[in-house]
Amino acid sequence: MDESRYSLRVFRETDFDALAAIQSAVAPDEPVSSESLRHMIEAFRQTANPHEIVVEDRRSGEVVATAAIFDLLEESDPKTQGILINVLPSRQHQGIGSYMYEILLAKAKERGASRLQCNVRDDSAAGRVFVAKRDFRERRRRWRSRLEVASGDTSQLASLVRTLASGGIEITTLSHEGVNDLQVLKRIHDLDVVTGKDVPRNGAYRPFSFELFRRVYLEGENFLPGAWFLAREGNQYVGVSSGAREPAQPHVLQQYFTGVRPEFRRRKVALTLKLMLIDFAKRNGYARIETTNDSLNAPMWTLNRGLGFQKVREVIQLECDLGEVTGERGPGASRAEPLRSR
């Protein structure tokens, strides 16, 4: 990086617009708003312990790249640090990503980490070269999948709801249950903790605290309480499938987590909840539903594919052992995956 042209500094609260613009430029098929990024980053700062940096053009003051190193979320592994680096496409191949990587590498060693983890889009040739030169190795893959709402078949929904009701399971929404009812929210969090145990992951499970869960998923611009579908038996929630909005993609309904308590599985609870979400999208004018699937979670991908979801873009999760780092420099950029890929 030409230090006479560019300068490195810590991230400022005024940088969220630039951060959103860079991420949207790196992945134009998945734009994000500054409001969404601010909400998520501010929610996770205490838990993730991030070190956030930017590179700006000395002449114009434009922020041209952002990067961060952080503790992994929902995985208890103090020896592994996550990193992300995003460089404006027009400023790539100038050594900026390499320069920022060296800063993050030094910070990782300062924190006592023995491994680094990052995500790179499969269609990013520069990103794949960048991580290959630094001895990152593939661990798993995640992909965004899409359903065109008009093609979603919900004809069996009414029958499924009746069958579940005959077995004592009611389908409801967070809006109906009470978005301001603290006991309702705590029961939903309890369901999330229990079902989250079975989500495939590389490290040990570390569930979100109630406070963090509430702030991340039940507050902010993205929150759609009417798109949180719940299966309830008595006062216990036994299944959930939640949707959210992204202001930068107003015609896309984002599907978050779908989970069912182990003792209620194989009763088509997850299928019913997902069909409720498709029906919600139809009734509210959404053109598409997008979600994230995981190569370690074949059953959920099988369910989504059966509903008509199609893979549209793939992200590779990679790790490197810091004892094997070559330090070789090269151009490229990595991009963070959407939160909570399940």
Question: What features would you describe in this structure?
Answer:
With 342 residues, this protein is of the alpha+beta class. It folds into 2 domains: 6-143 and 315-324, Aminopeptidase (3-Layer(aba) Sandwich), CATH 3.40.630; 145-314, Gcn5-related N-acetyltransferase (GNAT) (Aminopeptidase, 3-Layer(aba) Sandwich), CATH 3.40.630. 32% of the residues lie in helices and 31% in strands. The two termini are 37 Å apart. Residues 325-342 have low confidence and may be disordered.
Task: Give the helices and strands, then pairings.
Blueprint: E1 6-10, H1 16-26, H2 34-48, E2 51-57, E3 63-71, E4 75-76, E5 80-87, H3 96-110, E6 115-121, H4 125-132, E7 137-148, H5 157-166, E8 170-173, H6 174-177, H7 182-196, E9 204-205, H8 210-217, E10 223-233, E11 236-245, E12 252-260, H9 269-283, E13 288-294, H10 298-306, E14 310-321
Parallel strand pairs: 5-6, 12-13
Antiparallel strand pairs: 1-2, 2-3, 3-5, 4-9, 6-14, 7-13, 7-14, 8-10, 10-11, 11-12
Helix pairs in contact: 1-2, 5-9
